[in-house]
Amino acid sequence: MISFNEIVREALKSQAAAKQRTLLALIGIVIGIGSVIALVTVGEMVQLTSEQQFRQMGTNIITIQRGWGDSKEGGGNPDRPDQMITWTEAKGLAKKFPKLEAVAPYTSSWGQPLFADKSLDMPVLGVTRSFADLNKLTLAKGRFISDLDGYSFFGVLGAGAAAKLAKLGAGDPLGKTVFFKGRGFKIIGVLARAEEGGMRPFEINPGMMIPIHTSFLFKKERVINEIMARIAPNMDRRRLKSRLDQYFKMYQPDMSIQVRSAEQLINEMAKQSRLFTLLLGAIGSISLLVGGIGVMNVMLVAVSERRKEIGVRRALGAMQSDIRAQFLVESVILCLAGGLIGIALGVGAAYVLAKVNGWIFFVSGMGLALGVGVSSAIGVFFGYFPARQASRLNPILALRDE
Amino acid sequence: MALIELRGITKTYHIGDMSVEVLRGVDLTVESGELLAIMGESGGGKSTLMNIIGFLDSPSGGGYQFEGQDAGHLDDNELAHIRNQKIGFIFQQFNLLPRLNALENVMLPLVYRGVPPRQREKVAKQMLKQVGMADRMAHRPPELSGGQQQRVAIARALSGSPSLILADEPTGALDSKVSQEILDIFLELNRENKITTVMVTHDPKVGKQCRRTVRMADGHLLEV
Ligand SMILES: Nc1ncnc2c1ncn2[C@@H]1O[C@H](COP(=O)(O)OP(=O)(O)OP(=O)(O)O)[C@@H](O)[C@H]1O
Ligand SMILES: [Mg+2]
């Protein structure tokens, strides 16, 4: 005969088993909700961060390149000057388009400038005064290139380039000389670090900026890579594009130009990130489905374990709908508990990802509402069948249950 | 007007091709305020009859009038409603919910009646006092003896102030001393509060103390 101690131990064990079952079911929900929240949040953080990068410079920035069609890739071939925008065209632009508030054509080339006989791998940009204004550049030291610098051999270092120089023992780079293509450039300014991304040329931080005319000395033709411009806020962008097309076709009838605006890029990015969010959300949903099935299993077991209780409640006057509601509530509470843990973990994961990747940490109310909503919905959806089964038990048979 | 009027009640169970005729025409009249004991051999259909009287089950045939109203053709919700309003069940195995304490168990019928919590608690405390369990209200069933659990179960049955108490072998799981204590509660409730009680029992000593006893035999009820 089984001893009393053993009966107690059995009871404890089966209780522990029930807890384990509950916990296992919850893990599915926790992982599911957690990943949905993390993924949705990451998607939104990425979007917000990149939008912020654009916004910082203003969304009314456009860039103009010569190239084929409207493809995003490939402006003209830099080795084919006939496929590039010329200085003459760029200079004429400001006159022809008074509504462009600022125009900054620039050249870009890679080289091995030398400092103290050591080679520095860095880009060299030929710029005008307005380049600093358009890119919202701030100086750490000295001054920026001025339009009066003409053909002088002055250089302004990006923050990254300055750091590189400092490593080579330049100390304060101001007044030091960097050699590029055999000519010595006197450093007249150092920039503060510029935010990367958005419309800003990536060459700014690691590069050296020199007067645009000086940069032409190293080229066969006076051609530029790209024109950056700021447009008036209320400007009709489509009309501007066709007028720009016309303007550049006067010089090069065979080539079209590409105009990219910050706004257009933001919209494209938003679209992409929405897709990303949806895709990741779908992956999370699969774990939610698994979790939901787990909850359904736990509830089915609970119903069969509590047949007697159901019978008693029915005898005391509970209607089928009362019993159904009771089990539905239990299922929803179970899922909500899992959902809340999942939200906490998901937000935590998103926070870590944001710190690691330098994104702006941000949790949207919509994401949280989604988490709570989805977990309740799963509770209702996967709890309904067990709850209905409970409510339809024959009270007499349920009461007879041991 | 009789509280319960059963006329030719039959109940047949079908298991596969087999059919078992458990009740073969039961006639019974119970007046308000009566204390009735039903006796009879095991498997004779006493519990089946109790379930029909208590609206947990419906008969295969015959007529049932409760408080002068025809009780046939009630749907599931109406049956639940009558059980909640009119019937107090007491079981051999007490059937308290083990996760609720005594007070919460007693309040349960009132929960399904939609009585607000404060009033629920007031009524439940009063009932527990009446069955001598005022000092055990926070105890859960596993922490109570069999006799104590049955007292709580009686309090639960009384909490809805039902027209009828149905007790199916209420002392069947208790030793003779405790059985007598529980029976005394039923006798007192019937004597003092005029609570109509129908009780199934196997114990002749219990049967003897009830004013009226009937015997279930061969699917019929016979007055003793
Ligand atoms: N749901 C059911 N399906 C089939 N047969 C049933 C069902 N419920 C009861 N019976 C049968 O009906 C008969 C009477 O059962 P019931 O429980 O009413 O007897 P009882 O008089 O209460 O017996 P006891 O004194 O042992 O409690 C039994 O033969 C039983 O097997
Ligand atoms: Mg029985």
Give the tally of β-strands of chain A.
Answer: 14
* Low-confidence region ranges of chain A: 1-15, 69-74
Span of the ends, CA to CA of chain B: 23 Å
Protein chains sharing the most extensive interface: A-B, 17 and 22 residues
Topology, please?
The complex is a heterodimer of chains A (402) and B (224).
Chain A: H1 4-57, E1 61-67, E2 85-86, H2 87-96, E3 100-111, E4 114-115, E5 118-119, E6 122-127, H3 129-134, E7 139-142, E8 154-157, H4 159-167, E9 177-180, E10 183-191, E11 208-211, H5 212-216, E12 223-224, E13 226-231, H6 237-249, E14 256-261, H7 262-305, H8 307-315, H9 320-357, H10 365-391, H11 395-400
Helix pairs in contact in A: 1-7, 1-9, 1-10, 7-9, 7-10, 9-10
Chain B: E1 4-15, E2 18-30, E3 35-40, H1 46-53, E4 61-66, E5 69-70, H2 76-86, E6 87-90, H3 102-111, H4 117-130, H5 146-159, E7 164-168, H6 176-193, E8 196-200, H7 204-209, E9 212-217, E10 220-223
Parallel strand pairs in B: 3-8, 3-9, 6-7, 7-8
Antiparallel strand pairs in B: 1-2, 1-4, 4-5, 9-10
Helix pairs in contact in B: 3-4, 3-5, 4-5
The complex binds adenosine-5'-triphosphate and magnesium ion.
Magnesium ion is lined by residues 46-47, 168 of chain B.
Plain-language structure description:
The complex is a heterodimer of chains A (402) and B (224). Chain A has 402 residues and is an alpha+beta fold. Chain A folds into two domains: 4-54 and 267-400, no CATH class; 84-253, no CATH class. Chain A has helices spanning 4-57, 87-96, 129-134, 159-167, 212-216, 237-249, 262-305, 307-315, 320-357, 365-391, 395-400, and strands spanning 61-67, 85-86, 100-111, 114-115, 118-119, 122-127, 139-142, 154-157, 177-180, 183-191, 208-211, 223-224, 226-231, 256-261. In chain A, the strands form three sheets. In chain A, strands 1, 3, 6, 7, 8, 9, 10, 11, 13 and 14 form a ten-stranded mixed sheet that branches. Chain A has a two-stranded antiparallel sheet with strand order 2-12. In chain A, strands 4-5 form a two-stranded antiparallel sheet. Chain B is globular, with a radius of gyration of 17 Å. Chain B has one domain (35-44, 76-223): 3-Layer(aba) Sandwich (Rossmann fold), CATH 3.40.50. The two termini of chain B are 23 Å apart. A six-stranded mixed sheet of chain B has the order 6-7-8-3-9-10, with helices on both faces. Chain B has 224 residues and is α/β, with parallel strands linked by helices. At the A-B interface, helix 8, helix 9 and helix 11 of A face helix 2 of B. The structure holds adenosine-5'-triphosphate (ATP) and magnesium ion (MG).
